[in-house]
Design a protein that fits this description.
2 domains; 206 residues; mainly alpha; 5 helices
């Protein structure tokens, strides 16, 4: 059967199938040559979306890494501040303990204080305790002072104070001032560091 006879024998449906086959073959040949039929530019849009997604993922990963770095640096700085506070208060406590021990070794250590002097000092201790009754060392103290983890200690005189009791109270109050000021400084520096870290994270996100 000749090609002309075959063409004459084709029905309209056959012609449609032949045209579709020829079109498919043409696409295959053109695809092999690098041609892409994309009238809506979908391939470019998919590539652009993939690039944007990869860029966003990189930005998120960088932000997370930067946040971890800021947190790590903040934790290290806080540990240094806490170590400094404990070193300072420990040094003050050791110096105070040595000074109190030395005061107890003097000859007049057990000499009772003159009554009027002792009463005047005890009255002042009582006034301080009335002003701040939660101070550790005051008779009315009940729990932690100011909601803190460690109550503030106030050295006071006993009922029948001696010379060494006065010396010890003076020395201990000095150490307590050092500890209290150190705790205040630690709290302030911690707060400022936390705010600086939060500001840095906000700037990084912006």
């Amino acid at each position: 059967m000749s090609a002309r006879s075959i063409l004459r024998a084709l029905t309209p449906l056959g012609w449609l199938a032949a045209a579709a086959a020829a079109l498919a073959l043409g696409f295959v040949l053109l695809g092999g040559l690098g041609f892409r039929w994309d009238p809506l530019n979908l391939q470019h849009k998919r590539l652009e979306a993939a690039r944007i997604q990869a860029r966003d993922a990189t930005a998120v990963a960088a932000a997370q890494a930067d946040a971890r770095r800021i947190e790590t640096e903040g934790a290290a700085a806080q540990a240094q501040r806490v170590d400094h506070y404990h070193h300072m208060t420990g040094t003050a406590d050791r110096a105070t303990t040595a000074a109190v021990a030395q005061a107890r070794s003097v000859e007049d250590a057990d000499q009772p204080l003159e009554n009027r002097r002792a009463d005047r000092l005890r009255d002042h201790d009582g006034e301080l305790c009335r002003i701040a009754p939660d101070l550790d060392g005051c008779a009315g103290a009940a729990g932690l002072a100011g909601g803190g983890d460690t109550p503030v200690r106030l050295a006071t005189l006993p009922a029948e104070p001696t010379a060494v009791d006065l010396d010890a109270a003076y020395l201990l109050r000095g150490a307590q001032i050092v500890a209290c000021d150190g705790a205040r400084r630690l709290a302030v520096e911690t707060l400022l560091a936390e705010r600086a870290m939060q500001d840095a994270q906000v700037r990084r996100r912006d």
